[in-house]
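Issue 218. Parser rejects a valid record. Input:
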Amino acid sequence: IFGAIHALRCYWWERRSGAMNEARRLGEIALARNHGDPRPLLILGILQKWSGNFATALHLFERALASNPACATAYANLGSVHLLCGDPERAMPLLKTAEALSPFDPELFWIYGQIATAAYIAGEYDEALRHAANSLSLQSRYALPALISVNCHLARGNREMAAHAREHLGLANSRMIEHALALMPFEQPRHSEKLRAGIGELSALGIA
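Output the parser choked on:
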């Protein structure tokens, strides 16, 4: 199981070649050995989510939650799937349940980033900015909340603040941005396109 977790993280942070296949292989082995362990279900569900297979991902996360009803990671990923399917209202309570269940979770930065994205899509820019800031305070390498911050400020017409938020993207090259968006395979591509367009708008204005 730990090898599967390591491979999953290698793909998440580095997009290492073959990491998804290795995580899937080891996750399936771990599940075959212990059907009651929610961890391989979560790993396999995350891989399905990243591949855009949302129905399968939901089924796996629901199985994980049935195995451990207090599993914050299962709640968070269920919320993430609903978010990717364009339903932030359904995603938000699941994500906030995950936050409440595990307030010191080592991946709380990711949960905050998902909440920020859900709030942004719902047009709740204050909440989106607050959770994006919380996410970045815990993990400055996580590009998604920076993208959310940029687009929230642009939606309000504040280009200076948008440019400041963009600094959290580090090199802010297209590879980093595309990697962040690849881990958010929205069912409706317009959400990814809108997030990507914010960076393009700053560049076109000579601000970025």
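Fixed in the parser; the record now loads. The chain has a mean pLDDT of 87.
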